[in-house]
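Database export, one record per block. Field names are fixed; values are copied verbatim from the stored entry.
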Amino acid sequence: MISHVGKYQRIRLLGEGIIEDYLAQAVGPQGVEQTLVLQCLRSDMAETVGFSEMFLDTAESAARLTHPHIARVFDFGEADGTYFLAREHLDGPSLRTLISLAAAESMTLPATLCARIISQACEGLAFAHDLTHPETNQPLRLIHHCIRPYNILLSRQGMAKVVDFGIDQFRSRWTPQHSIPLLRQSMYMAPEEIKLGRVDRRMDVYSLGVVLYELLTLHKPFESTSEWDLAQAVLSEPMVPAERYRPDLPVALRAILARALAKEQDQRYPDCRAFQADLEEFILSVGEPVTAQQVAQLIQQLTASDDPTLATPR
């Protein structure tokens, strides 16, 4: 393996697939080193007609997203024969790791903290959904398509950020199905996506609602064990009521989950801003402020014996 891609030095492989993720470093002005994540299109995929262009188009769209709750893309292009995207590295865990650690400790995550984390993800997604072209002012109609617990990351300072905007859709579209944990992925797909119908920003609302369900309950919303049964459940069966796993769940949060996870698009939140507004109203109704320091303390408590810089499980 070539250790360098242009000015970036690859340190450690974080994830494999048609896009390979590396922990990397770049030397900036005055010799200051910057740690980041370098995402490289696998060499054999780059040789496939059109793949490198699609990858760069995806990277260009992601680079337009400058928001506190979206991981920043610093650079993209081609160097030393490798197509790459360089994005911000966060020093904390993904929500997938947070959920797994909390479940292992039989710990219930505070409802208001869960609401604030998802509210921040809503804010980042809403910015992307509303983004327009800087020259034409026309809507770019960007949708993440693959909101999952592993691509919402937390910093050690208690900030939630959405990562891999567009990149995970690229991965899931072109990676051979046998190498994808299909059951886990289908869990987050909106019914209209499974039916191959018209999708819009409400698809991200649904997927983020599933993530909120998991944060609150530490369980999956469906009990199906096969891919086919799960797809049918998403389309036509009710989810396991969140209060079965968490009887103390406030009524207001149950209502928020019900609307975010409505099977019919028109019954769902119309966008992430409306979703966020209800989450923030719930937090206010509790009467106790939720601070970044509280989120940071939760991260510290759960990851005391865990290394969040390891590859994020998908």
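Remark 1: The beta strands are 4-5, 8-15, 19-27, 33-41, 73-79, 82-88, 152-154, 160-162.
Remark 2: Residues 177-183, 308-314 have pLDDT under 50 and may be disordered.
End of record.
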